Amino acid sequence: MSEKKYEKKITCIGAGYVGGPTMAMIAAKCPQYKVTVVDINKEKIKAWQTDQLPIFEPGLLEVVKSARDRNLFFSNEIDAAIDESEIIFVSVNTPTKMFGQGAGKTADLQYWEKTARDILRVAKSDKIIVEKSTLPVRTSVAMERILNANEKGIHFEVISNPEFLAEGTAVSDLESPDRVLVGSRETPPGLKARQEIVDIFANWVPAEKIITSDTWSSELSKLVANAFLAQRISSINSISALCERTEADISMVSKAIGSDRRIGAKFLNASVGFGGSCFKKDILNLVYICEYYGLPQVAEYWENVVKINQYQEERFVQNMINTMFNTIAGKRVALFGFAFKANTGDTRESPAIFITRKLVEEQADVVITDPQALSNAKEDLADIIQKVTLEPDPYKAALGAHAIAIITEWEEYKGLDYTKIFNVMEKPAFVFDGRNILQHKQIFDIGFNVYPIGKPGLSHL
Ligand SMILES: NC(=O)c1ccc[n+]([C@@H]2O[C@H](COP(=O)([O-])OP(=O)(O)OC[C@H]3O[C@@H](n4cnc5c(N)ncnc54)[C@H](O)[C@@H]3O)[C@@H](O)[C@H]2O)c1
Q: Where are the domains of the chain?
C-alpha cells in the first residue's frame, strides 16, 4: 500500500510488553492503518524486526509476522514517526518513583513526560495523544498543560485508553478483550477524538465491549482493576495461612466460596504471592493518591494488599527453613520457575527474586530452572549471580538437591517424572509447592515430603 493510501497513521512510543503486542494486534486487524512502534532502546527494536521477539508471549510471533512490513513497522526514528502520525499511543514504562516526594509509592513519570516533550518539539499538526501506560488519575491534565502550552497553534487532545491485557495471555486478551476502555474530555473535540480511538477497536471488538467514559474515571479504573485483582490473591493467600494452622484445605475453601456466583471462581488460587510489574506498583500508586487526597483509611486498606503479599513470600521461605530442620546452609535447593507467572519470561517483581535472595542469605546452594526466564533471572540477580546456578533442564537442577520449590506454575512442571527426580535427590527429599500444581499424594507416595500452600503437609518424617 502506498503511504497516502493508509486510512490512519498511528505511532506507539514504547515497544515493551504492552506497546509491542497491542500495536501488533491493531496492525493485524486493521491493514488499512499504518502502525509504527518506536522506542529509545535500539536492541529492542532490532529484536522486534526478527523472529526472536524481545518478549515471549504465546501466539505473538504469528500476529507480528502477519502484519510486519505490510502495515506494522518497528523503528528507532521517533521524531519521524511522531511527525507523520495523527494518533500517538504512549506506552512507556511508569515504574514506582524511588526518589524525592512520593518515593516508593507514586509513579515515576519522567519517561512519560519526556515523550510529551518529544511530541511537543516535533509536532507540526494537531494530534490525538493516547495514554496507554498506567498513570495516576488526573495525569492527562498535566499532559494537556505541557502539550497545549505550545506556541505553534497546534491542538492536542489527550485520551485515556488503559491496557488490561495479562502477560502470558496477551494475544487472546487483545483479540477478544473483556472490554476496551476509552476515556476523554466530554467536550466536542474530546468526544471527536474519543470516537477516533473507538473506531480503531471497532474493527474487531464488538461495540458492547467498548466502554467510554470521562478521562479521570478511565485512568482510575485501571488502577482499581489491578487493585481488585491483587486483593483477591492476597485475600485467598491470607486464608491459606489460616488453613495451614487449622488443617483446612485452601483448595476446598476456594472451590466452596468460588461456586457462589457473587464471588466467582477465578483468581482464587493460593500461591507463593503475586508478582509482575503492575500489581504492586499500581496499588502503591493508588495508596499515594488516597493519601494525597486526605483519605488515610482508604490508603491503609489498599496498602495491606501489598503487605499480605510480602508476608506470603516471607512465610514460604520461613516454612522451607523450618521444615528442613532449621538450616539450609550448604543445602542445594532447586527453584522450579523464576518468571512471575507461567507463559512469560517476565520476572519483574517475581516472588522468585525475593525467595532466591533469602535462600542465598541463609547460605543455601540455589539452582534456578525456568523455560523462558533465565536471562532475566541473570540480570535480576546480577549482584549475587556467582552464588546461584542457572540450569535450563529441571532434571539437572534437581540433581543432588535437598528440596525443590515450585515457584512458577509452568504446565511442564506438572508432567515431569518425579520418580526419576526423587532418585537423584538427597534424602530426605522435600517439595514445596508454591503454586499447588502437583499431585501431592502421588508425589508423597514416591517418597517426597510434600508441603503445599494452605494444606496440611505430607511427611514421612
Ligand atoms: N506489562 C503489563 O502486563 C501491563 C499491562 C497493562 C498496563 N501496563 C502498563 O503499560 C505501561 C508500559 O508497560 P510495559 O510492561 O510495556 O513496560 P516496558 O518496560 O516493557 O516497556 C516500556 C518501553 O518504553 C520505552 N521507553 C521509555 N521511555 C521512552 C521514551 N522517552 N521514548 C521512547 N521509548 C521509551 C522503554 O525503552 C521500554 O522499551 C506501564 O505504564 C504499565 O503499567 C503494563
A: 3-205, 214-461
Using the atom order of ligand 1, give the atom closest to the CA of residue 111: 28
Four-way CATH pick for 3-205: 3.20.20.140, 2.40.10.120, 3.30.530.20, 3.40.50.720:
3.40.50.720
Instruction: Please say whether the beta carbons of 168 and 344 come within 8 A.
Output: yes
At residue 374, the 3 state secondary structure works out as helix
Is the fold of 3-205 the same as that of 214-461?
A: yes
For ligand 1, the distance from its centroid to the CA atom of residue 154, given in whole angstroms, is 27
Is ligand 1 within 6 A of the CB of residue 160? Answer: no
pLDDT in tens, 263-308: 999 999 999 999 999 999 999 999 999 999 999 999 999 999 999 9
CB 40 near ligand 1, within 6 Å: yes
Is the CATH number 3.40.190.10 carried by domain 214-461?
no
The residue whose grid cell reads 474530546 is 190
CA distance linking residue 236 with residue 34, whole number of Å: 45
278 is catalytic: yes
DSSP assignment of 12-68 equals EE--STTHHHHHHHHHHH-TTEEEEEE-S-HHHHHHHTSSS-SS--TTHHHHHHHHB
pTM value is 0.94
Q: Could you say which of 12, 30, 278, 290 is catalytic? A: 278
Give 17 Cα–ligand 1 centroid separation in angstroms: 7
